[in-house]
Amino acid sequence: MSGAVVFVLFGGAALIGLVVFVMRAVKKSALERNVALREMAGRLGFEYREDPAPGMFAPRPVVAGMINGRRARVHEFTRGSGKSRTSWVAASVQILGTSALKFTMRSQGPAFIEKIAGAFGYKDIVVGDPAFDAMFAINSSDETYLKAALIPEVRMRLVAFWPKASGGRITVGDGEAVYEQQGSLSSASSRERLENSFPVLGDMVALAEVHATGTL
After folding, report:
1. Per-position DSSP letters for 144-212, written without gaps between them
2. pLDDT digits over 149-182, tens only?
3. Which of 45, 58, 94, 178 sits CB 3.0–4.6 Å from 71 for a disulfide?
4. Taking the chain, what is the end-to-end CA distance rounded to the nearest angstrom?
5. Whole-prediction pTM value?
6. What residues contact residue 111 under an 8 Å CB cut-off, 6+ apart?
C-alpha cells in the first residue's frame, strides 16, 4: 500500500473520529441542558417532555404549562439565515380575552440612536418616573392607558428584573405577552432570565386583560 493511500485512509479516519467526538460533545451539552430545563419546569409547575431527535442528537426539550389558567412556555428559535442566523430564547404567557393593546419595551439605546429614531417618528412613552424612563424605551398602541396602568408596583418589578435582562425585549399583543433575548437554552444565564421573567409577564398580561374590559 502506497504512502499516499495510507495518508488518505489515516486522514479519513481522523476526520470521522473528530466528527464523532464533536457530535458526542454536543449531545452531552444538550443532555445537561435538558436536565436543567426539567428542573426549571419543576420549579415553575410546568410539564417537561422530550421530542425525539434524529441520529446521535439529544431529544428536543419542550417546557410548557399553565399560569393562572393561561398557557405558558419556554422555547428557543432562530432569526435570519446563513452567516446572519442568530439563536434566541423566549418565555411567553397567554392573554385571555380580546385586548387590542399592543406595546413593546426594550432598553433605552444610546442618545444619538434614540434621537435618530425620533426624527423618523418613533416616540417613546414617558411615564414620568425618571429612573424608569431612563431605563426603558416603550412604544404602545394606547399611550394614555399604558402610562396610567404602569403603576409603581409594576414599574418596581420591571426595574428589578431588567438589569439582568438589559438585552431583552418585552412584546405584548396578538394574544400573548413575550419576553425574548438573544441566547441559547444551553446557557444557564439565559435560562435564569427566562424563569425570572414570568412574574413580570404576569403583570403585562394583567395590563392587556384590564385594557380589554375598558375599566381603566
Report:
1. HHHHHHS-HHHHHHHHHHGGG-TT-EEEEETTEEEEEEE--TT-HHHHHHHHHHHHHHHHHHHHHHHHH
2. 999 999 999 999 987 656 799 999 999 999 999 9
3. 94
4. 86
5. 0.79
6. none
